[in-house]
Write a structure and sequence with these properties.
The chain is α+β, with helices and mostly antiparallel strands. The protein has 3 helices and 4 strands; from the N terminus they run ααββββα.
């Protein structure tokens, strides 16, 4: 099977699973009109729900500035061994749409460290 098709299928599956979660978060934000930024806890909740829907694992999360905009970023993995794929989930701190993409297709600088971080965690687990 073509790796690009696998990446696209994974992104589509995540996008579908996120539709309801994001709609629920938007509805909650409408209830609190003074909330101008997305908190780290809100970001973790949305990412956690998305990863649970596809059997993914959160590798790390951080808040960074990318192209002049502050954003929450999470790296995750889906699958095992040679079938493991790495995802990058981003959300502007000012709110908006959650972006999900495979690290192979991402232009975000954080994407480059996801696989290395996972490899490091694998080595630590093997040594433990």
């Amino acid at each position: 099977m073509d790796a690009q098709l696998d990446d696209k299928a994974l992104e589509n599956t995540l996008a579908e699973s996120l539709a309801d979660l994001v709609a629920a978060d938007v509805a909650q934000a409408d209830l609190v009109p003074d909330a101008k930024t997305v908190s780290e806890d809100e970001f973790v909740e949305v990412v956690g729900g998305a990863l649970e829907a596809v059997g993914g694992t959160l590798l790390f999360k951080m808040c960074v500035e990318n192209e002049g905009e502050a954003q929450h970023v999470a790296a995750a993995s889906v699958g095992d061994g040679g079938n493991r794929q790495f995802l990058l989930l981003t959300l502007p701190t000012s709110g908006g749409a959650l972006k999900v993409e495979t690290t192979a297709k991402s232009t975000n600088p954080v994407a480059g460290i996801a696989a290395a971080y996972a490899g490091l965690m694998d080595a630590f687990q093997a040594a433990a």
